[in-house]
Amino acid sequence: MASKRLYFFVLIFLGLVGLLLLYKYINPIEHALFPKCPVKHATGLDCPGCGGQRALHYLLNGQLSQAFAQNQLLFFLAPYIVTGFYLQLVPKPTSRELKLRKFLYGYRAIQILLVLIIAFTIIRNIV
């Protein structure tokens, strides 16, 4: 059972590495390979993820200010998501790791995260 789980995570990891390499070397602005935002296309409004592909490209190429200008939310969510993956991969989590997982990814934390994402979306479309 553990080997199937490890195999699954290795496949996910390799897929993520492949995607990161793609985003590092191919600029989403210049190529039609990358999907465009359907929300932006349909409404003209920026969704919380708009600019995320461009931000990731700039971030992977060390252009932090350009990345931040594309999508500010990415800078706050990226460490949060990476921490979540780490806490999910820990085979035998300590009580400290379990408390951290509950604090960061529990019901209340998800509610707060959703409010922040909605607020970000509203503010970015007003400003």
Automatic annotation (TrEMBL):
Keywords: Membrane, Transmembrane, Transmembrane helix. InterPro entries: DUF2752. The keyword Membrane applies. Pfam families: DUF2752 (PF10825). It comes from the Bacteria. The chain crosses the membrane at residues 7-26, 73-91, 103-123. The keyword Transmembrane applies. This is DUF2752 domain-containing protein. The lineage of its organism: Bacteria, Pseudomonadati, Bacteroidota, Sphingobacteriia, Sphingobacteriales.
